[in-house]
Amino acid sequence: MIYENVELENYNRIDWSKINSEMTDGERRFVHGLIRHHKPKRLLELGVSSGGGTVNMLNAISDDSKASLTSVDLAEKWYKNKELAVGADVGKIFPELCKEKWKLFTGADVSQVIHSLNEKFDFAVIDTAHVHPVESLNFLCALPYLKDGAVVVFHDISLFYMRGYERTYLATRILISALMSKKIFPSNKDCHYISESEPICNICAVTITPELRKYIDNCFIALSIPWEIYPAGVISDIRSLLEMHYNDEQLALFDDADRANLAWVISNGTTYSTKKLERGLRWLPADTVFYGAGEKMSQLLQLYRQCGLTFDSPIWDKNANKINAIAGHVVRLPDFETKGSGKTAVIAVFDEIIANSVGRKLESIGYTCICVNELFGFPLHDRA
User: Fold this and answer.
1) pLDDT of residue 282
2) Residue 5: its pLDDT value, please?
3) Where in the chain is the domain with CATH 3.40.50.20?
4) Per CATH, which fold does 230-384 belong to?
């Protein structure tokens, strides 16, 4: 109820009807009130979307010359309109504050950005993917860079109850349930309602304390809950950052969850054992070529790493000029001219049309082509 005792003059000067905000009015005032009460100087935002939350945070610090905001989003375009950049609303409302008080990093995970900032934050909002384990990994990466006493807000803690959303949107609820810290909620009158009679709060905050850090093992243990997505493209960066700040037992918990969930994704939900998949990798000839530098190839490279196998095969992709490298491995343009008689090509792409087209080209010059599913002997359908 902190914000009820804070003047709302700054808040009320924004015409929120013109902002693509994904928070309710009460949720925005909750964040605004926490900022006005605690007066943080270094603010962190994970998950920007169109920038409605960013506008709220910049507005709350607009009259504090010493305060600034850093925002990070893995996407580059707004997920509801791919023609708009992430954070597009911010420039429309605060063109000057964008230059003076705001740093925006897009196309990057927090694990790839936060260490280089050389900052300690005293306020944060985490509002990212809402499917496990994203919020937990975001928080674990951010925690070493949060001061004791910092306030961290989590949005969409009850998204699984909202109409139109799947009951698998549990990530933030799992995270806050694992954190040993007193939770701060809005008053009931500002909760988001899922029915006319039952209020359900969709936002809360915690304070970073020595006790929370002491029992952070709980958060690592919660990673054993099955993952809804496997963040193959950034998992190595996440692991590297965690290794800098957490102990061997905590890293072992992370690695166990990582291995099991990668195996589950690659095997289309048939095994949690990377050992069962290792045989497929060992069967491949030394001169195998891999086509594709996207999510599926990232998964394969992680599997090589987890199995302790060296990967030194060529990776081809038609977009090699834009991709350059994947997990440290150079990506080259495909060679559809040189004969590859007797050689094997693994097609590691999700798009069936692209996979078939590439396969036909390579087979025409002598390659034996197999898709990833065939490599491990699993059904041909793919999990998204």
Assistant:
1) 92
2) 56
3) 230-384
4) Rossmann fold (3.40.50)
Burial 184-211 (b: 16+ CB within 10 A, else e): bebeeebbbeeeeeeeebbbbbbebbee
Report the pLDDT value the prediction gives residue 121, as an integer from 0 to 100.
98
Nearest-angstrom CA–CA distance, 305 and 285: 18
187-201: average pLDDT = 57
Q: What is the location of CATH 3.40.50.150 in the chain?
A: 2-224
Tell whether the torsion through CA atoms of 42, 44, 50 and 52 is positive or negative: negative
Percent of the chain topping pLDDT 90: 70
Q: Quickly tell me which residue has 């005293």 as its tokens.
A: 122
Per DSSP, the residues of 188-210 read: GGGSPBSSSS-B---EEEEE--H
CA end-to-end span of the chain:
41
2-224, CATH topology level: Rossmann fold (3.40.50)
Spatial neighbors of 346 by CB under 8 A, at least 6 apart, are 284, 288, 289, 290, 291, 300, 369, 370, 371, 372, 375
Q: What is the dihedral of CA 168, 169, 171, 174, to 10 degrees?
A: -70
pLDDT reported for residue 193: 46
Question: What's the chain's length in residues?
Answer: 384
d(Cα 109, Cα 298) in Å, to the nearest integer? 15
CA atoms within 13 A on the CB side of 384: 0
Q: Which of 145, 101, 153 is nearest to 120 (CA)?
A: 145
Beta strands at 121-126 and 42-46: parallel, antiparallel or unpaired: parallel
pLDDT score of 194? 46
Q: What are phi and psi of 345, to 5 degrees?
A: -125, 125
